[in-house]
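Thread: quick sanity check before group meeting

JM: Hey all, I'm pulling together slides for Thursday and realized we never actually wrote out the predicted structure for the chain we discussed last week. Dropping the sequence here so it's in one place. If anyone has concerns about the input, flag it before I start.
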Amino acid sequence: MNNNHTFSQKILSWYSKHGRHNLPWQQNRCCYRVWVSEIMLQQTQVVTVIPYFERFIKRFPDIRTLADANQDEVLHLWTGLGYYARARNLHKAAQLIRDEYQNNFPEDYASVLALPGIGPSTAGAILAQALGQRHVILDGNVKRVLTRLYAIEGWPGKKAIENQLWEHATSLTPDQQLTDYTQAIMDLGATVCARKPDCTSCPVTTFCLAYQQGTPTAFPTPRPRKTLPIKQTNMLVLQNEGGEILLEQRPPSGIWGGLWSLPECTAEQAKDIERWCQQHLGLAICETQAQAVLRHTFSHFHLDITPILSQVKSPANHVMEASNRVWYNTQQPESLGLPTAVLKILNQ
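JM (edit): ok, ran it. Output follows.
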């Protein structure tokens, strides 16, 4: 691109008139608020994030409050947002900042990059957005803008393509107005250079090779399609006399790590579900009833869940000896993090 300065000026001029200036994390701007928003915005749209961000900040207004919180409550406020490793890493990083930085978010790139859950683009976005430091960002929106701008063929997830995009992003990033520029190029990708581009509203079509070729929708090259494998499980919806449902806390890492879910068993174990519940949960059950299969899709596989409803014969309290189990009152729910699939089953 011949004139990178002109490019950034056009982007900034467009942003001043058409960009987003009233997002909640742009108010009382600081590293903490920008950090929380950037983590929430990973693979999630702004419109979805806003109510989550506002609830989260109301409950955890600063790093110390978040660090001192119970992980269950952090995950509870994340319920429905997905990609729960983000919440676990956010909580871990807050504790690290409390213990090693006296509750002050670090202000140098290497220290920020070293925090759990923060990659190069997120680290750059936090420091540019909150402190105006010159750092380069390359989120999904920016990748889309750059692949069209330079007509770059190849899936942006490939390392060679990503390296190309970093080089272009670095050369285009100006030395001043970094807070506005980083927001401007993200906004351009989110609102104008979106999946269905609105080229008539774009301030930089004179620079855009894809536009000049008449092929903007050909970029970015989509990810190579692959068929997702299908896994099956049975989830037991075990209800006691008081109408409470038995939940188990999942292991701290892996799928739904740290969240509270329904007890699971295989198809083979479900053939004698009464015996399985007696052996594994210490519960006597009756009146089992399988429900319609619910499909939940992760990034790498489909999970087909068969909910099995059953009543627990009283008394059922001795199951509580296990610290990773609770009886959950759906009418007065506790502050526990639940996977979206489990919430759907309970709501049904």
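AS: nice. Residues 85-101 form the longest helix (17 residues). The radius of gyration is 24 Å.
JM: adding both to the slides.
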